[in-house]
Amino acid sequence: MNADLFKQLVCELQIGKQLPDSVYIHKDSLSEINNKLSAFIPAVASALKTDEWDLVKLYKREFRLSLLSYPSFYTDSYPVLHQSINVDLAKLTHKKTSYHQSENPPILHRKETMISSSNQYYEHFKNITREGEEAGLYKNTRIIGFKKSWENIINKKGYELIDGRLVKQSSFTLSDEEIRIDRHKTAIVRHELSAPMKTLAKNNYLNGDYSIFDYGCGRGDDLRELKAHGLDAIGWDPNFQPDNDKISSDIVNLGFVLNVIEDQDERLEALIGAWELCEQLLIVSVMLANDSFIAQFKPYKDGVITSRNTFQKYYAQSEIKSYIERNLQDEAIPVAPGIFYIFKDKLLEQEYLQGKYKRHHQWQQLTSPQTLDSKEKAKLVVTQHEALFESFWNSCLELGRIPSNEEFEYSEEIRQLLGSHKKVFNTLRELFDITEFVKAEKRRKEDLLLYFAMGLFEKRKPYTQQSEALKRDIKALFGDYKTALNLAADLLFAIADIDLINTQCEKANQQLPASLLNKGHSLILHRDYINDLPLLLRVYVGAGLQMYGELDKEIDLVKIHITSGKLTLTAYDNFENSVPFLVERIKIKMAEQDIDFFDYVNEKSRPPLLNKHIFLSKEHQLYKKQKSFDNRLIKEMGESIMIDEHINRFEFEKRLMECKKEIKLYSLYSI
Questions:
Q1: Residue 13 contacts by C-beta under 8 Å, 6 or more apart in sequence?
Q2: Residue 292: its H or E element
Q3: Quick check: 539 pLDDT over 90?
Q4: pLDDT band for position 459 (cuts 50, 70, 90)
Q5: Which element (helix H / strand E) includes 333?
Q6: Are 72 and 55 a contacting pair, CB within 8 Å?
Q7: Are 149 and 268 in contact (CB under 8 A)?
Q8: pLDDT band per the 50, 70, 90 thresholds, residue 190
Q9: Antiparallel, parallel or unpaired: β 159-162 and 165-168
Q10: What pLDDT, in 10s, does the model give residues 256-279?
Q11: Angstrom distance (rounded) from CA 136 to CA 139
């Protein structure tokens, strides 16, 4: 069976549930389809060593099928999916997904379409479907495919399921669903781009190459700003811009929409609707909060009612990630707390992920050529075309390898002068200081190992889905993809080795421009030095940020816990001040797959950051001022204040007053 024959036979099927891109058929009806196809499907199941399937989903435009397990197909009116095995016949790969533990698994409707009309259950299934149609259950087909949504629709229509059949409820009472929520009040006035839009700008998605649709745009402040920059942007909102069309776009933003919808079915419909509109990238953002914050509000459904009579569903980071992936059946990549990217364009996804971990080579000027006796002719050519060959060497340093013909703009000219890129490189390595290239090669290799190690947290991307540039990187730096993945896996497993992490923290403390090592406990450093960490510690930090998302600019210090597998991020009111005060602390607990957020809203309770010069490099423009200030502070207030971890702003200012001192910039004055 080849791909062309498979697609031809699937398109010719006259039996089964017909969808635009696929056909669903029960295994009992395979005897009534083409002999080649009916023999091929069980053969695939046999090759996968599984007999746990009842339905097969055949794709019309792809060489692909899915084996679906519905054990209660004949006994339940609306059976739930227990397991799916998606088989890519072109790549000879498969993915198994279990729904045994799911609280809201997919369910089946219109079962009569999946079996032969001669099947003894055919008329019975038709009657079940007719009941649902008469009750008005199929009006919104977008959300009926999940168990909870289906049960909610049945209940809202005033029915209940008894022995698999719809029965009108004898007494239909309206519960708290009758509470009126003022959804329009959730739309706020913005004076700058929203947080999800800022991430798009940061990652260069607002460069004019992509059309943008804002699903739930509120008052339209983001749209006005985007249009002012000449971007192709439009939006829709049920309260403020209900007459706008919902149109497909490259990027769709579902920004802080899901958390304000109190109806779970409508919430799911918004997510799926936004996903259907997006062509390349969907960005979803919600509000996060911990239990102590949520406790101050009145509970309502799965969220709370605020003092403004608006609904808010506050999520945990892992909760919203799971919700998105379960309902869209695609990977949700955390970009920041509560903000996720979901890519339809998998090549764009790979470019984004790779870019997250790539350090760019920076230099002030190229090293001077050495005068050598050998290869005088080649040296003369290089000297005569100095700018051209410097550009080539520049490209080698940027890539950490020899560029391909397609990657160097002046490839044809340089090959006419000296021959192949490899020959050019071998000539230049004798004319330039090769140590600069060795460093660039090492940097690129480490960046890729970090990228592959982070990729192991999610479904591994096959080699064929990698960009051509990345394939060249793999071949040049690792030899093959398997070797790269094995090295990345070794790195990832090594972050659990406490002794190794301790050794690397001690090494980092010696090598970094600035850091604080609490022996055997933790290493604290400024976020600017993360990329200067040893590779293993970069992987450790990266593993923590897999849960959190990208570091936003508000984060100042990063704390690597040596023994507990935790990562702490801290943000201060103004890190440029001589004594910054802590406003937020985020503890990422990797072993528990959880994040704790600690906000210091009360200014008087904020702890001060003392001895700040420890976190500045000696070349920093403020280092000398800061160190002088810190020494003066110790002299005036005593060393004990510098090691008191529990002092807060109120106590700090009180002790300043006792010493009759006040702080102005980087100086202490008597009062």
A1: 23, 25, 33, 34, 37, 58
A2: helix 291-294
A3: yes
A4: low
A5: strand 333-336
A6: no
A7: yes
A8: low
A9: antiparallel
A10: 999 999 888 889 999 999 999 999
A11: 6
Measure the CA–CA gap between 632 and 621, rounded to whole angstroms: 19
Contact 424, 414 (CB under 8 A): yes
**Residue 423: what residue type?**
K
Mean pLDDT of 505-516: 96
Q: What is the pLDDT of residues 137-187, one digit of tens each?
A: 887 776 687 888 888 888 888 888 777 777 776 544 444 445 676 665 555
CA distances from 124 to 55, 113, 120 (A): 18, 12, 8
- Say how far residue 417 (Cα) sits from the centre of its chain: 46
Place of tokens 């997904």: 97
Position 58: which residue type? L
Backbone angles phi, psi at 378, to 5 degrees: -65, -40
The count of residues in the chain is 671
Q: Radius of gyration over alpha carbons of the chain, in Å? A: 31
* pLDDT tens-digit readout, 417-448: 888 999 999 888 888 878 999 999 999 999 99
The predicted structure's pLDDT at residue 360: 47
Per-residue three-class SS string for 585-653: EEEEECCCCEEEEEECCCHHHCCECCCHHHHCCCCCCCHHHHHHHHHHHHHHHCCHHHHCCCCCHHHHH
Q: Are 349 and 293 in contact (CB under 8 A)?
A: no
Tokens of 157: 């229509």
Q: Return the structure tokens found at 6.
A: 């498979």
Give me the pLDDT at residue 643, please: 61
- Which two structure tokens, joined as six digits, stand for 346? 């998998």
Tokens of 252: 């769709």
Three-state secondary-structure class, residue 335 = strand
Asked whether the beta carbons of 339 and 199 are under 8 A apart, the reply is yes
